[in-house]
Amino acid sequence: MATTHVAPASVDDDPDAHPNREKQYVIIALILAALTVVEVLTYTSPQLFLGEDGPVIIPALLLLMAIKFWMVVGFFMHLRFDKKMLTVVFYSGLALAVAAYLAVLTIFRFWGNDQVVQPPGIPVTSE
Amino acid sequence: MASTETPIAENPEAEPTTIPASAEFIPAPDPDVVHGGHGFATNTGISNTKLGMWLFLASECLLFGGLITTFLLYKLPAPGDGPAPQELYDIPFTSISSFVLLMSSLTMVLAVSAIERGDKQRFHTWIVGTALLGCVFIAGQAYEFQLFVSEGMGYTSSRASSAFYTLTGFHGVHVTLGIVMLVSLLLLSFRGHINRHKAETVEVVGLYWHFVDVVWILIFAIVYLIP
Asked: How far apart, in Å, do the first and last CA atoms of chain B sit?
């Protein structure tokens, strides 16, 4: 009788190993397109967001941007379905970047009216 | 005298001393080959290629974060430095470019899905579609740059223009590299080097492409739309 030494079969041999998410991808793309339309509306119809200088436009744009970012990374880049370690790796880099550059913006007084726009070493002209 | 030796057939833990000539061998899986996303022969359970790409993308956050921050700090040109980028933006045109890049992410993820199922015909279609959409985006960016230069905003006109061109130009270079990767995938596939067992190669290129899209999502909102 023939003895068969079989290595563990790869799940690649299983056609169901990769769930078909194409319908989900199309829905996500449609949502992303709709969010982009809302973003453009802040430019073309700022009155819908309490005016161009109103308090709503910037938070709304930042929120829409964050949602789009999360959807692409989570669904198209499969971060929601992959190992948690990849989420930690990517969001650690992102958090480091955001923290570092928020610190830079704060050092240059980006948030106030007395913004320092010259690099260090160049005298700041005050109005 | 009765023998105390247990026959191999009754003792499954016993090591066979000889391998019959008729034994059929199936090679062990290559650790670099995708196992359907269910586990890899590495300590982390993630393929080294994929982990390396995610680490690279995390480091790219720092690169683009620096460029966006520089633009935010320098976006207002000094008096007499020529037009500010904000005065020249054509938001409807850039919105269409953004939409094109967003849709290229959809075609890319559909390409990955097709190759995972072994459907090479659809894989080729979606990869060509993604590359073409990327080319349309680059053409739009070149047109925009040419328009801005003709309006008097050169690369060295002001620190605002330098920051703008450096940020969007770096992104454009990333998209161009992505197109080169997509064309390479297509050529590899035509030569028979890409199949469903090598779907991870396509997935890793897809990760890069989606990241380029994600960066544009940030640039479009922060650079173009926020007043």
From this structure: 98
